[in-house]
Write a structure and sequence with these properties.
Largest sheet: none
Radius of gyration: 17 Å
Number of strands: 0
Mean pLDDT: 83
Strand content: under 5%
CATH architecture: Up-down Bundle
CATH class: Mainly Alpha
Shape: elongated
Helix content: 55-70%
Order of helices and strands: HHHHHHH
CATH topology: Butyryl-CoA Dehydrogenase, subunit A, domain 3
Distance between the termini: 32 Å
CATH superfamily: Invertase/pectin methylesterase inhibitor family protein
Length: 199
């Protein structure tokens, strides 16, 4: 059970992940590039919501881990979703402290803050389930994260003419979670193997 304030959620999450996965930074290899391209193509073909270009652009940099199989790509996708959610928490806190928004927008931002806090917890649980090969559980959790991103955006539409804040953040989290869900399903159909990480 976590006991983290919103302002420290990002640090808590990153510390948790750093105890699970070794972190390295390498240039992407041609074989990994092919794997990412084929994975994104399959996911975008199966889900009308997944943007192929977004998928490839997001996964290609491999910001934390250099991976050599599909499980590793799934880890990267989930790490990116978690990074997006924790960064969005900080963005929402800054927006709330700026006092630049009307009461309706503030209420929506507060709702989004709770949704993103819940999403972070679900992402960590999904990550654990994925590593434990509980793929059905991981998939359900990732779908719930997608719902959280959608719900955050929908809140702003309840008032006609209201500016939809966090549209980019919600889109990114939705995409990354959908990509992660797709990869989890793909991994569940292949023989069990550890997520290779080059050293």
């Amino acid at each position: 059970m976590w006991h983290c304030s919103f302002s420290s959620l990002s640090l808590c999450c990153l510390l948790l992940l750093s105890t699970i996965i070794p972190t390295h930074c390498y240039l992407i290899s041609p074989s990994l590039l092919d794997l990412i391209n084929s994975t994104c193509k399959e996911c975008s073909d199966k889900s009308a919501d997944i943007n192929y270009d977004f998928c490839v652009t997001s996964l290609q940099p491999i910001p934390v881990t250099h991976v050599t199989n599909l499980q590793g790509v799934g880890i990267v996708a989930m790490e990116l979703a978690l990074a997006n959610a924790t960064n969005t928490i900080s963005t929402i806190e800054h927006m709330l402290s700026s006092k630049e928004f009307d009461p309706f927008a503030i209420d929506c931002l507060k709702d989004c803050l709770e949704l993103y806090a819940d999403a972070i917890a679900m992402l960590v649980d999904a990550f654990t389930a994925f590593l434990s090969e509980h793929f059905d559980i991981a998939t359900v959790l990732m779908r719930t994260v997608m719902d959280a991103a959608s719900t955050c955006g929908e809140g702003f539409t309840e008032k006609k003419g209201e500016l939809i804040l966090l549209a980019k953040e919600n889109y990114n989290l939705f995409q990354l979670s959908d990509i992660s869900s797709c990869i989890i399903k793909q991994v569940s159909f292949v023989p069990s193997q550890p997520p290779n990480v080059s050293s």
